[in-house]
Each structure stands twice: as structure tokens, then as C-alpha cells.
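Protein: DUF4083 domain-containing protein
Species: Lachnospira intestinalis
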Amino acid sequence: MKYDFLGVIVFGIVLLIGVAVIAAFITVGIFLIRALSRYVKSGNVRKEKSSIKKSLGEVLKDYNS
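Structure follows.
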């Protein structure tokens, strides 16, 4: 009888750890999806940065010549 109770306690602890790990993976997945969607929606900012980088590259090219 004592071993049955101990087995139930161990099973409960393992089950709680498993649920916590699954919840952590789900949370990380949600944050990853949110971050990727924000990155995809920020297309205009990336275009502006690329034009700034091109103009900076041209300035450095002119400076070195």
C-alpha cells in the first residue's frame, strides 16, 4: 500500500513537470510567431534602412576616392 501511494506522488510530480515543459514550449512558440509577424509587417522600415545604407556606402566610396 505504501508503494502505491509513493508511485502516485512520483507520477503526479512527473506529470506536473511534463505539463510545465509543454506550457513553456507553447509560450515560446507564441512569442516566436508574434516576433516573426512583427518582422514581416515592418517591410517599410527595412526599405528605408536599405536606402540609407546605400547612400552611406556611396558617401564612403566618394570619400575613399
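Remarks: The chain has one domain: 2-64.
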